[in-house]
Design goal:
The complex is a heteropentamer, with 1 copy of chain A (279 residues), 1 copy of chain B (245 residues), 2 copies of chain C (242 residues) and 1 copy of chain E (220 residues). Chain A has 279 residues and is an alpha/beta fold. In chain A, 34% of the residues lie in helices and 26% in strands. In chain A, strands 1, 5, 6, 7, 8, 9, 10, 11 and 12 form a 9-stranded mixed beta sheet that branches. A 3-stranded antiparallel beta sheet of chain A has the order 2-3-4. In chain A, helix 2 crosses helix 8. Chain A starts with a helix and ends in a 13-residue tail after the last helix. Chain B is mainly α and 245 residues long. In chain B, helix 1 (21-53) packs across helix 5 (107-134), helix 1 (21-53) packs across helix 8 (167-180) and helix 9 packs antiparallel against helix 10 (206-234). Chain E has 8 helices and no strands. Chain E has helices at residues 9-46, 50-65, 68-83, 89-115, 118-126, 131-161, 173-183, 187-216. Chain E starts with 8 loop residues before the first helix and ends with a helix. Classes of the chains: A alpha/beta (279), B mainly alpha (245), C alpha/beta (242), E mainly alpha (220). The structure holds adenosine-5'-triphosphate (ATP) (2 copies) and magnesium ion (2 copies). Residues 40-41, 161-162 of chain D line the site of one magnesium ion (MG).
Amino acid sequence: DSGTLKKVRDSGSITLGIRESSYPLSYLDDKQQPVGYHIDVCKHIVDAVKARLKLPALKVHHQAVTSQNRIPLVANGTVDLECGSTTNNEARQKQVAFAPTTFVTNVRMAVKKASGIQSLSQLGGKPVATTTGTTSVQLMRAHEKGKGIDFKEVYGKDHADAFLMLETDRAVAFVMDDNLLAGLIVSSKSPADYAIVGEVLNVEPIAIMLRKDDPAFKKLVDEAVTGLMKSGELDKLYARWFMSPIPPKNVSMNFPMSEQLKALIKAPSDAPAESFNKK
Amino acid sequence: MNYHWNWGIFLEPVKSGDETYLDWLITGLGWTLAVSLTAWLLALTIGIAVGALRTTPSRLLVGLGNVWVELFRNVPLLVQMFLWFFVVPEFLPRDWSLWVKQEMPAKEFVTAAICLGLFTSARIAEQVRAGVGSLPRGQRDAALALGLTLPQAYRQVILPQALRIVIPPLTSEFMNVFKNSSVAFAIGVLELTFQARQMQEDSEQGIETYLAVTLLYFICAFTANRGMAWIEARTRVPGLIARSG
Amino acid sequence: MIEIRNVSKWYGHTQVLANASTHVAKGEVVVVCGPSGSGKSTLIKCVNGLEAFTQGTITVDGISVGDPKTDLPKLRARVGMVFQHFELFPHMNVLQNLALAQVKVLGRSQEEAATRGEALLDRVGLRAHAAKFPGQLSGGQQQRVAIARALAMDPICMLFDEPTSALDPEMIGEVLDVMVELAQEGMTMMCVTHEMGFARRVARRVVFMDHGEIVEDAPTGAFFDAPASARAKAFLSRILHH
Amino acid sequence: MIEIRNVSKWYGHTQVLANASTHVAKGEVVVVCGPSGSGKSTLIKCVNGLEAFTQGTITVDGISVGDPKTDLPKLRARVGMVFQHFELFPHMNVLQNLALAQVKVLGRSQEEAATRGEALLDRVGLRAHAAKFPGQLSGGQQQRVAIARALAMDPICMLFDEPTSALDPEMIGEVLDVMVELAQEGMTMMCVTHEMGFARRVARRVVFMDHGEIVEDAPTGAFFDAPASARAKAFLSRILHH
Amino acid sequence: MGEFDFSVWGPSLPFIRDGLLFTLRLTLVAMSGGIVIGTLLALARLSPIVPLARLAGAYVDLMRSIPLVLVILWFFLVIPYITGSPVGAETSAIITFTAFEAAFYCEIMRSGIQSVPRGQLNAAHALGLGRAQSMIHVILPQALRNMLPVLLTQTIVLFQDTSLVYAIGAKDMLKAADVVGKNYNRPVEMIVLSALIYFAICFSLSLAVKQLQKRVAIIR
Ligand SMILES: Nc1ncnc2c1ncn2[C@@H]1O[C@H](COP(=O)(O)OP(=O)(O)OP(=O)(O)O)[C@@H](O)[C@H]1O
Ligand SMILES: Nc1ncnc2c1ncn2[C@@H]1O[C@H](COP(=O)(O)OP(=O)(O)OP(=O)(O)O)[C@@H](O)[C@H]1O
Ligand SMILES: [Mg+2]
Ligand SMILES: [Mg+2]
């Protein structure tokens, strides 16, 4: 073995990168333990590593990562598997490798139902919230319906803050990945007040991230993930996290699997976002 | 290092738009300077006033000054930023609250500058008080004995000396303002840290981005340091060895 | 000119002035002496209201210092004061030191103030140093500037608080010379000092303090030749001993 | 005991000692005086190597101070020094001040050091103050402790740099008394001081300095009665004037 | 958001406590390590060996010119390349804060050393004490006493700055509060709670500093 597998064998431990509020892919529950769909996927990968290395007592560490530091931390060896909500795109593929896509998100917007907003074209002159470091506003500008419309952008330092902008009327819409919007809405004070509406601004394949140029490890991860897909285990995990009550509030997101993901489960792929959004 | 370097990234156009990443960083630098300098002016004005109040014979004024300082220096800036932005407007009457939240021009900038300004003012007040305290008491007596009123004594005699004495700590504080302004991204000011996050997300060249931003902050702080050194040299009094401590 | 009647002062529980009474008539020079901590500085600072006192009355030229209605800055502008550590304003040059209060308090123009300042610098022999900063002068020169600064306000009387005790021995003479000259011109002066030679030459009376009390208040000759109290006797022997 | 031969010293381009030569024999007391800035402190600090000098030689008890091979700490431990501002260590009590160098330099035990310290405190009349901190003592008391601290090292000679000039006039006597006593017991002493009464009483010779030069080096009587140089004459008249 | 609901404070307490313990541990370690290293740096800056003084000066200036958040981030990214193996966020935080605060404590100790009158060093030398002995027994104890209030004030700043470890995902008090706030969707209430806790601790500390100042101040 070389690369990650050697490192894991030598240190007797593997480090998973986790996100703290990427509902329901990877987040902290009410005991502040990492849980979520991607955490479960990673557990299966770790099992595969244990089996491969014959190390049943392999220690698993968790390292919280942010969208700022996740790539350098994977590159510098702090994190072996990033089990968060990272979009697989061409630029990132220069830095890191991805497991086959396990989730597909659509960038849309959340609004208060009472506002009556249904489309990008209704946002002229209105404040629109998004999260610092994400590129949703650029996507809006780039979208044909968004062309020529003058948005006022407001930024939250994380998704919760950005949602707070919508909640406190600092913004009329919050543009973000739809699973995250759905997660924020179900855990909000009055979920019935919000709706996810409007055009799909971008389709993004989300996948587990690992170090680049480590074919042995990549192969192991790929096999573990495709194994999950083939065995139908991934569908169960999906149902567990998207269609049934989840912590901390024990409500269900009711977020059925998209056609794109169904297709990807039949034909696993680690193709980047660009191949989904060809104009 | 398992990293794909690309130093040309700064001149490349951003993913969606006609700007380059360099343009983003320059915009960020502009807002960083705007927030920092506005906050610094606010902090100096209030800090000197509050610091001076705390050295007056009036117990009431001293007490008010103390409350001010303790209030603003005992809570982390990040938390204060959040409180100013999300909590304070909720206590305003509904119309005002909505105005502040939606209509107020450059509301993130205004909030960040005020918050950073007040936070820094508490530290300046503390230094000014120490500076005044380190002057021999005789200076105040001498000014009063000549018939100057207490405000005149402060204006003409006490503050000019105290401020000269506290230039070194003020220098650090000025450098801190630039560094602390990075917290303003938390409420969505489009300053350097904000642009850095944006750029690294958009370009995936995080290390180059953060190196560039670190360098820019360093330049800001260093310029602030040199600027204060220049002021210190300009205001140096021949034959006066700073009596500090 | 200066009337001190039954003045007492406490800092918390410690009494620093105990029922002190004395006076300085117009044109008179009175020297105050006594051991360290006996309350000399406190007493003299009460005269122009730099220290508040707890009981008693002090009047200067008929104006009561302790009266809350008195305009203290105005009173102080008419009473010159010279301190042990000179207390020139170190960030202003000599002429600016002399001009500041003339302009801000008396409302003189800058030119008037400068002219008056230069005349006084001439008088204390420091005309050439007008543009220097205090830190560039010797102690004796600084103290002479401080005297000039007080005189620039045309005071009706002068208070001195150990004006020579922070000076190198060779500079004491130059400051005392200026003070002797002032006294001979008829300035009303109240001086805290241990320079007994000076006291003998120009003081009408000597006030001896100990523990906040005025123990002795006697004509100069009588004080030196036959101090009435044992305390004054012991004090004199200590400071004249060497 | 102390031999100073042709010593010169420059700070950058300013010369602060110019070819100074003098000596102090065993058991002799020499007083050094002169105007402020004339180099008195610099000269006396050269004697125990606190200041380096540029040219010339100084030997103490036959050991050359300027020689790079000399163990300066060891030499200094044998030369007592007393400063204008006492320089007691403010964070230690009186007895600890006396014990520190005895323990760390001479290697005495704490008990030995304390016993010796107490004996010396007795001698300067401060036994009762052993447990106090310097800040709780008057200036005169502090200076007596400083003398005791130097004596605790059993020095072969003592250097004094204006030991009384930071004191209130009434405290000067108590310090001079201790110094006179030391002199009478035969301690070798080199004293920078302006206390001319002290000089007259115990000094064998007076050294007068001006601008870094030793202008006069004469037996005490001759110096006071008929100073040879105009500079010394002028200086004496300035400091004896009042 | 209208009405506030402070009932989330109850269930959050265990997490707040854990976060606070980390914050306190980080503060204590960084303070003690920072003061020791800072004192050594100060001695280096004041040393007559020019390259040593320059090097220490450059280190201090660099640290003082970069926002702490970025220093935290850099250390986290760079330490694995130095040590050869990755370190956890908490270890990294402790190393970073010690190294960063050392620069600030260095400046405090330097002015503390310079605030001791020069005569004290002369007096120590005149008694035969060597350089190191004079430093250890005479100068540093006074510098430390003179600067104690400033050192502690800096520690209060350090205590607040620990909130910036969010950048590398270590779980301090603010982070714990933040997570609870997100779980219960009561971010504002949790921020208010952490503000109160920070205020209570920092304010009591600064009162304690004032008391201490009276007690340890050298009687002059
Ligand atoms: N702010 C103060 N608080 C408490 N006590 C004070 C204060 N100022 C002065 N004192 C005390 O008042 C007493 C008189 O002080 P004052 O300065 O008038 O004495 P002095 O005779 O001028 O002494 P010196 O010769 O040392 O100048 C002293 O015992 C002093 O300790
Ligand atoms: N570190 C220094 N750098 C430059 N010049 C100095 C320094 N120390 C002393 N001098 C100068 O050396 C000269 C002699 O100083 P020194 O302290 O020996 O005089 P002194 O006779 O002891 O005076 P005083 O009576 O004021 O104590 C002075 O002109 C002084 O300005
Ligand atoms: Mg006094
Ligand atoms: Mg000297």
